[in-house]
Amino acid sequence: MSSKYWEECLNLRIDNLGENHIKTAIMYNNLSVIYIEIKNYDKALKYAKKALDILEKIPEEENELIAIYLAIATIYDDIKNYEEALIYSKKALKIIKKNLGENSPYTASAYNSFRINLPIIKKEYQKALKYFKKIS
After folding, report:
1. In the predicted model, is pLDDT for residue 97 greater than 90?
2. Angle between helices 64-78 and 41-55 (to 10 degrees)
3. Is the dihedral of CA 75, 79, 84, 89 positive or negative?
4. CA 75, CA 89: separation in Å to the nearest integer?
5. Which of 19, 28, 40, 116 is closest to 68 using CA atoms?
6. Nearest CA to 65 among 31, 88, 35, 92?
7. What number of other Cβ atoms are within 10 A of residue 45's Cβ?
8. For position 24, what pLDDT does the model report?
9. Is the per-residue pLDDT at 20 higher than 60?
10. Distance between CA 20 and CA 13 in Å, rounded?
11. Which fold has domain 1-61?
């Protein structure tokens, strides 16, 4: 399904459920992931931030923030803004540890997203190896 159709679905969702509904946020995140895949990072970040704005207002949906934070971290990682990627990965990891535990599959994603990549970029290989062993 092309991004055009996803955007049409998003408009229908907004018309039916409103801008600040959890399902609208999920649709924004889905669009973000599509744009990440086609390397349109400006649009990916735009949609991810819209999803984030909605979800930050819905405390009972805190776990949904994990996917958004990791998507934003991926965008920043792909455009080589590693410091911003680190910020969002840490936010995801905090929720993961609090709500899902250290052994959650999401934990490895969050660690991989910043604990390995950033030290390698900074040539801190021992630190990267430490975190790699933690998720292996």
Report:
1. no
2. 150
3. positive
4. 11
5. 28
6. 92
7. 19
8. 92
9. yes
10. 10
11. 1.25.40
- In three-state secondary structure terms, 62 is coil
What is the residue type of 93?
L
In this structure, what token pair is assigned to residue 36? Answer: 């990440």
- pLDDT reported for residue 62: 80
Nearest to 117 by CA among 92, 91, 80: 80
Domain map of the chain by residue range? 1-61, 82-136
Are 82 and 118 a contacting pair, CB within 8 Å?
A: yes
pLDDT band at residue 54 using 50, 70 and 90 as cut-offs: very high
**pLDDT over threshold 70, residue 130:** no
Given a contact cutoff of 8 angstroms between Cβ atoms, the answer to whether 74 and 45 are in contact is: no
Residue that the structure tokens 């933690």 belong to: 134
Residue carrying the six token digits 């390698």: 120
The amino acid present at 9, given as its one-letter code, is C
* Axis-axis angle for helices 22-37, 64-78 (nearest 10): 20
Residues 82, 101: Cα–Cα separation, whole Å: 25
